[in-house]
Specification:
Helix content of chain A: 10-25%
Largest interface: A-B, 37 and 37 residues
Organism (chains A, B): Alteromonas aquimaris
Oligomer: homodimer
Number of strands of chain A: 13
Protein name (chains A, B): Urea carboxylase-associated family protein
Order of helices and strands of chain A: EEEEEHEEHHEEEEEE
Structural class of chain A: mainly beta
Strand content of chain A: 25-35%
InterPro entries (chains A, B): DUF1989
Chain lengths: ~200, ~200
């Protein structure tokens, strides 16, 4: 059964060790930010720095592992029809809207939506760090310059993660214009029991 | 007056708004990791994701600003004779030693040294995130692969940061072999009052 995350919103839920989370881009060119906590220890959470270090690459795809701040594997990518994601950039937020789109009314963004969703699990705001940005297409040029391009994901494309510990997972349909080719679309997901 | 950080160690100290921190590589090819907290609110700390996002580059040098998780500028680079640093990778730690150097006895590394130094300010371990790695030379190839190369810093090279708020700063002489061309050297620093 697929659950819909409405455009520019987010949710949080428990994902048990061995369960798989399939994140689907139903219309194409839509980013979804993911962040997670160890269900049994909220001081253990996803770490971009540890994951980039152990992955020895900024490119993530099938077989890539996402690590916690305690160097444990939280999620592994087990299926991926896109193989183009980002783990450098902060989730969009009121602050990023003010910075990049000063003429627009700022919205909570993925950060605000995740903070709200995680608050149901009594997780404080400052525990929410840099997200893994599924389907986000970030290019680094030879001088180190970062560009955000439209996602390469087409309608129906998906990435599936397997939980390596019991987790609280937060997941969004991203709110930032540039990241989503300036159209705000939903994200679908399904939780699959262990094979 | 220059203070010495002995090889494979770290320290923490208060840096007031407007003060400048000059970090010197006295022998060359030595990395120094820096992390910081808002002195008045320890829930506000350095964020690699926010800094990469607002900097729109993985390359940092004179004029670059380092942001907090609350999107405020904590430090600005005001002098830089090296212009080659890293903000992608986690500080070295017992876990990274186990991962990358499984045949060696693991040492606390920059992470352990920072956690210890910050504990004097009652900062909990899990608040210590991805450091800005001064003089660390990280190359990203066209496929996204990350390589750690010897620093380009020569004896006497330095980078100076100006504090944009009152800070608790942690600073190390890095402990990882590959990052420092396999020789563990000291780091010098001095705190300069506002111009």
């Amino acid at each position: 059964m697929e659950t819909t995350i409405k455009p520019r919103s987010g949710t949080a839920f428990i994902l048990r060790k061995g369960q798989r989370l399939k994140v689907i881009d139903p219309e194409g060119e839509q980013v979804s930010d993911i962040y997670c906590f160890n269900l049994d220890n909220k001081e253990e959470f996803l770490s971009s720095g540890r994951s980039l270090d152990y992955n020895e690459s900024v490119a993530f795809g099938k077989g890539s592992k996402l690590y916690s701040n305690q160097s444990n594997i939280m999620l592994e990518i087990v299926e991926d029809t896109v193989e183009r994601h980002d783990f450098l950039l902060t989730p969009c937020s009121k602050d990023t809207f003010r910075h990049f789109y000063p003429d627009e009314e700022p919205v909570p963004g993925c950060y605000g939506n995740l903070v709200h969703a995680f608050s149901e699990f009594n997780i404080p705001e400052h525990y929410v760090g840099t997200t893994f940005n599924i389907f986000m297409n970030v290019e680094i040029d030879k001088n180190g310059g970062i560009s955000v391009l439209p996602p390469t994901s087409k309608a129906g494309d998906y990435t599936t993660f397997e939980a390596k510990m019991d987790l609280i997972v937060g997941l969004t349909a991203c709110s930032a214009g540039e990241s989503n080719n300036f159209k705000y679309k939903p994200i679908h997901y399904s939780v699959l029991d262990p094979l």
